[in-house]
Design goal:
401 residues; 7-stranded mixed β-sheet; 6-stranded parallel β-sheet; 12 helices; 24 strands
């Protein structure tokens, strides 16, 4: 171990010993423009405990950071809050290296780790509400099933008021700074929202229930130690309140217009719709899909009230970028959206109907008639697009009153 990688002190007893991934740009389809971190934590209790590990290629970085504080062989317990590979990828090798007395996970987590790694040792399953003693300190566990995997759980260290929250309250943000108060509020808000939109949006109902459950627990959260991005210590209530707002998905006057185009006809329609939206009082956000990544669209939808989608017809089908974005958005299950479909075509023009079908499948409330234009929109067609924008804006005004 080089000695270059150091641990970061979180409290008198807790150290960050994770890894920084400056280069990752794709997280199962989510564009992580600013990289990420894989956070692991060391608790210096009588029984020294490691909470989570890191993605496999970063094992040496984590072990070096641990070695800057203690001999890794002194680790007695390992807690696996979440079995996804970015947090458990090097777990078998770490177990091999440090030979902990026990490894703990939730009931589902113990199964998931067995199914991932086919380990030849027991993972001790802990139940919701269960506690374990570290000698001079105690850890308790909160099951957070489906946030965002069936195995997910929180671990709470009462003595220091630290909630180890795995993916919850996280963000994909590589930085040399470890804490929220070292990073600008705008960047924190944006990346936390982007993470919620691209990972947690389909789980908004369980998020709301979890926030209620955690609010009802007799715990004091002074620090929220996430598995990605900065540790919240300045104002933990702030990220909790943001989650509460995002999970509610209350519509706003923002309308996202996502589209692609072959010969600029669908783009002209999108721009005319955007003008109508603006004239009607909505905040129009036009997103041409060869300039905007699917995860950018998901992020904008998080606080939008409308989604309008335009596609030309290519070989009797949706344009590929539109199909990509719609497939991704459908999986994220945004709620409380109104919307519309539009597009140009040359021969048969199936794409607009296909957009409608996907939007209906997403329970988007379609406003007005979908607009299909043959080849190139004339002034009348553009006026129709403008009116469609006005109509959606009017409906948004009603919904946001
Ligand atoms: Fe960061 Fe669900 O893993």
């Amino acid at each position: 171990m080089s000695g270059v990688f150091k641990a970061a002190r979180v409290t008198d007893h807790v150290y960050w010993v994770g890894a920084i991934d400056w280069s990752i740009r794709d997280f199962h389809g989510y564009l992580t423009s600013r990289g990420s971190t894989y956070n692991a934590y060391l608790i210096l209790a009588d029984k020294i405990t490691l909470v989570d590990t890191v993605k496999r290629p970063f094992r040496e970085e984590m072990l070096s950071r641990i070695a800057s504080v203690i001999d890794p062989g002194d680790i007695t317990y390992i807690i696996s809050n979440h079995s996804e590979m970015d947090h458990s990828g090097c777990l078998p090798e770490v177990i091999q290296a440090v030979k902990p007395e026990k490894v703990f996970a939730s009931v589902m987590g113990a199964n998931a780790l067995a199914e991932h790694f086919h380990l030849d040792r027991e993972i001790v399953a802990v139940k919701d509400g269960e506690s374990i003693s570290l000698g001079n300190m105690n850890l308790s566990f909160v099951e957070t099933r489906m946030l965002h995997w069936p195995d997910s759980m929180f671990t709470y260290l009462a003595e220091d008021g630290v909630l180890f929250s795995q993916d919850a309250f996280s963000m994909h943000l590589a930085s040399s700074e470890r804490f929220d108060d070292e990073i600008s509020d705008d960047l924190l808000n944006y990346e936390a929202a982007r993470y919620f939109a691209n990972i947690l949006l389909p789980l908004s109902t369980p998020v709301s229930k979890l926030l209620e459950k955690v609010g009802g627990l007799d715990i004091t959260m002074r620090i929220v130690a996430t598995d990605h991005g900065p540790i919240w210590r300045k104002d933990v209530n702030r990220i909790v309140e943001l989650y509460s707002r995002w999970a509610a998905q209350k519509p706003t006057k923002k309308a996202v217009v996502a589209y692609d185009t072959m010969w600029q006809s669908t783009a002209m329609m999108a721009r005319a719709i955007g003008e109508g939206l603006k004239a009607g009082g909505a905040d129009a956000k036009l997103m041409p899909l060869r300039a905007c990544h699917r995860s950018d669209v998901a992020t904008e939808i998080l606080d939008a009230g409308a989604l309008l989608v335009g596609s030309p017809t290519l070989n009797n089908n949706l344009f590929p970028t539109v199909a990509d974005a719609l497939t991704y958005l459908k999986g994220l299950k945004p709620r409380n959206l109104i919307g519309a479909a539009f597009g140009s075509y040359g021969w048969s023009g199936e794409a607009v109907g296909q957009v409608e079908d996907v939007l209906r499948g997403m329970k988007v409330d379609l406003i007005g008639e979908s607009i299909k234009v043959k080849y190139v929109p004339d002034d009348e067609a553009l006026a129709q697009c403008y009116s469609q924008g006005m109509l959606v804006a009017e409906k948004l005004r009603e919904l946001c009153q």
